[in-house]
Amino acid sequence: MTSRTLGIGFLTPALVAVFIFFFLPVMLTVVFAFTNMSTSTGITDGDYRIIGDRLRNLSDAGVSQASIDKLEAAGYQITEAGLAALAEQFGEDTADELRDDFLGQSYAKRRDLERVLRSLDDPIRKTRDRKAAADLFAVSIINTRFDTEEEFRAALTSTGIDAGDHDALTRFAYTGWGWTRDNFRLLLELPSTLRYAANTAFYVLCTLSFNILFGLFLAISTFYLPAKLANTFRAIWFLPRILPPVLYVLMWNWFTWDTGFISTVTGWFGVPQQNWMMQTTTRAWTVIILINGFVGASLGMILFSSAIKAIPTSMLYASEVDGANRWQQVRYIILPQLRWPILFMTAYQTLSLLTSFEYILLATDGGPGRATEVWALAAYHTALNNYGGNLQYGLGAAYALVLVVIGIAASALYLRLFNFRELLIKPRIEQ
Question: Rounded to two decimals, what is the model's pTM?
C-alpha cells in the first residue's frame, strides 16, 4: 500500500503537467473552434449595432426589403425627448414653439426638418446649428449602440420594423461571439485550404526524409572516426539545435539574402545580386527544408549514434574476421539494429513537423506569395497575426483542431504500423 501511494505521489506532478499542457489546451481549442470569436466580437458579451456600411448584407441575413427600406429612411420625428435636448442647447422658446405646432410629426429627410427650424418665429439661423438641432430628433437606429437585446428590440418596434424581421436583425446586429459550425464549412470552401494541406504534406515528407537520412549518414560516418574527431564533428552538427531559432534563421538570412554571402561570391563572377531564399518558390522550399532539416538531423545523429554504440562490438569484430567491409557492416549489422530508433524518429519528427512553423515564420513568413504557407502557420496567421487586422480566433482554432485530429490519427497509425508494443515488452531472455 505504501509503495502504491508513493508511486501515485511521483506520478501526480506528471499527471498535472499533462492536464495543464496537453489536455486543457486541446479542450480549449475544441471550444474555440466552434465559435465565431474574433477581434471584432471580443471575448466577452457584445452589444447590438447595425453599421451603415453593412446594410447591403441585410438581405443575405434574411431581412425583408421593406424593413431594410424603413431602416434606411427612418427619418426624424419631433418627440419630447428631442425637444428636451433642444431646449438645453437652443432655448425654451424655440422648443415650446416647435412643441405647439409640430409635436409628433415625422420627416423623411433632415433638410425637411431644417426647413421647419428655419421657419419658426424664433428660428435657428446658422446652418451648422440647424443640422445639429435636427440630429436631436433622428429616429434611425443605424450606427446606434444598444447594450442589451431588449433595448435593441424596443428600438426596432419604435422604428416600425416588421416584427417578423426582429430575430434576423437581432442576430445580424449582435457584435459579440456565438456558437457556430461555420468555421469547418469555411475550411472546406476556401481555395487556400487545399494549398495549405499540400504545402504541409510536401514540407513534412521532404523534411522528414532529410532528417532521417542525413541523421543516419552523420551517425554512421562519425562512428568510424576516431573518438575525439567524431565528438568534434557531432558538436558542430548539433549547433543548429541548441542555437536560438531567431539567431539560427538570421544566419541563413545572412547567407542567402541579396546582400549575403552567396550573392557576394556569385557577384564576383558577374551574377546579379538576388535573394536566394525568396527569389522563387523552389528556392524558398529548398532553404526551408535545409533549415529545418539540419535541426532535425542533429537530433537523429545523437539518437542513432547512441544506438550504434549499443551494438555489441563483438558482432563488428566477427564481421571483420569474416571479411566484411564497412558497407556490409552498415547494411547487415548496423541498419537492422537501428530499426526501432528509426521508427521512433520517424513518428516523433512527423508529429513535430506537422505542428512546427517557427522556422518558416522567421525565414519566409509563408512567402513568396503564400507559396510556403503550411497549415500550422496558417492557423497562426489567422488567429494571432494577420494582415487584415481582424484576428479570427475561432477559425484559427478550427485550423489547429484539424492538426490535433491528424496528429492523433498519425500516432495511432504509427503504433499500429510499427508495432511499438514489441518495443515495450521484456526481452525473451528475461521472460
Answer: 0.77
